[in-house]
Amino acid sequence: MNTSKKQLNNQLILAPMEGVVDPLMRELLTSLNNFDLCVIEFIRIIDALLPERVFYRIAPELNNDGYTASKTPIRLQLLGQHPQWMAENAVRAIELGSHGVDINFGCPAKAVNKSKGGAVLLKTPEEIFKIVSCVKQAVGKEVITSVKIRLGFDDANLLDEIVDAIVSANADLLTIHARTKRHGYKPPAYWEYIGDIQKKYDIELVANGEIWSKNDASRCKKITSTSNLMLGRGILALPNLANVIKHEAEPMSWAEATRLLLHYSQLELQGDKSYYFSSRLKQWLRYLKLQYPEAEILFEKIKTLKNKNDILNIIGINNTN
After folding, report:
1. Please, which residues have CB within 8 angstroms of residue 154's CB and are 6 or more apart in sequence?
2. Which of 12, 16, 124, 228 is deepest in the core (most CB within 10 A)?
3. Rounded to the nearest 5°, which phi and psi values hold at 73?
4. Rounded Cα–Cα distance for residues 179 and 292 (Å)
């Protein structure tokens, strides 16, 4: 009988990009693509069981049984260093409707690392074991416990120890961002490390990092020997990238992307954080211009503007408010 944990195939997961893929962006991207899962921006766990309202604020999809409007299941991600508090909050996340729980050991942010969260824990595989083990025991065998890591902090010397700790703690799924914390987001991604891990350990793997096109996805799958991918910045640059990879859809045209920008702007201005509209739109254009030369032109036109009406006039929305 085959007892291998490696059973997933061709899974595409939307990455939890802090401060970028918020509920509105998740709604748009999952409506455009047939993602298998969407991992939510991390919830910071310190020394308490967080009230339910915190979970609902970060993941309003919990009000819809843990699905986006387009029926993509969501999974809450927790970031922290205290095993027991991580476990208690993981149980709460599951009780509220999260489809499994994800543990963040990859965040490179200095503020997070200073408080002993995120990627800094890659220096101490034994602490990773304690956290993952405690969470897994708390949520039980039937609940998927997934983990996201980088190759290491300064280098990949501890990668085997890190993965061994995660496997020994009975995690179900491991996403590897194929760069160290020191690498940040600089290309390339070192996919070959994931390929090595695939050969050594019986755990389901998801590859992440530098997947911008269908060709990148194909090369990544070949090098890593996993068909499961997590898409981050690439899906912001090409908004239908998941369907381009999964269903061989045509890449979104600039005309289609423009209509999407207009729709996004309208939704952003209706939201309770509309005062961020200018910065959020410019942030997305910084990604879009990696795929579309026209986005560079639009970005240059609005980059110094702060007044929403001025921006709306340029991108073609008649603001009637």
Report:
1. 180, 181, 182
2. 16
3. -70, 145
4. 26
Residue range 234-250, pLDDT digits in tens: 999 999 999 999 999 99
Q: Write phi, then psi, for 70 (nearest 5 degrees).
A: -90, 15
Q: Which structural domains are found in the chain, ordered by start?
A: 12-247 (3.20.20.70), 254-315 (no CATH)
Q: Is 7 exposed, middle or buried (0-12, 13-18, 19+ CB in 10 A)?
A: exposed
- Of 172, 79, 160, residue with least CA distance to 119: 79
Neighbours of 267 (CB within 10 A): 14
Take residue 248 and report the two structure tokens written for it.
Answer: 């061989």
Catalytic site residue 107?
yes
Convert the pLDDT of each residue in 150-182 to its tens digit: 999 999 999 999 999 999 999 999 999 999 999
Residue for token pair 């310190």: 46
Q: Is 138 left (phi over 0), alpha (psi -120 to 50) or beta?
A: alpha
Residue 320: pLDDT band with limits 50, 70, 90: very low
C-alpha to C-alpha distance for 9 and 14, rounded to whole angstroms: 16
Helix (H, G, I), strand (E, B) or coil at 80: coil
d(CA 52, CA 96): 8
Determine which one of 38, 107, 134, 220 is catalytic: 107
Other Cβ atoms less than 10 A from the Cβ of 215: the count is 10
In the chain, alpha helices (H): 23-32, 52-58, 83-95, 110-114, 125-139, 159-168, 192-200, 214-224, 233-237, 241-247, 254-270, 277-288, 293-302, 308-315
d(Cα 209, Cα 185) in Å, to the nearest integer? 8
The C-alpha atoms of residue 261 and residue 252 are separated, in whole angstroms, by 12
Residues β-bridged to residue 114: none
Torsion angle in degrees (nearest 10) through CA of 75, 185, 210, 300: 100
Name every residue whose Cβ is closer than 8 Å to that of residue 173 and which is 6 or more positions away in sequence.
8, 100, 144, 145, 146, 147, 203, 204, 205, 206
- DSSP reduced 3-state for 21: coil
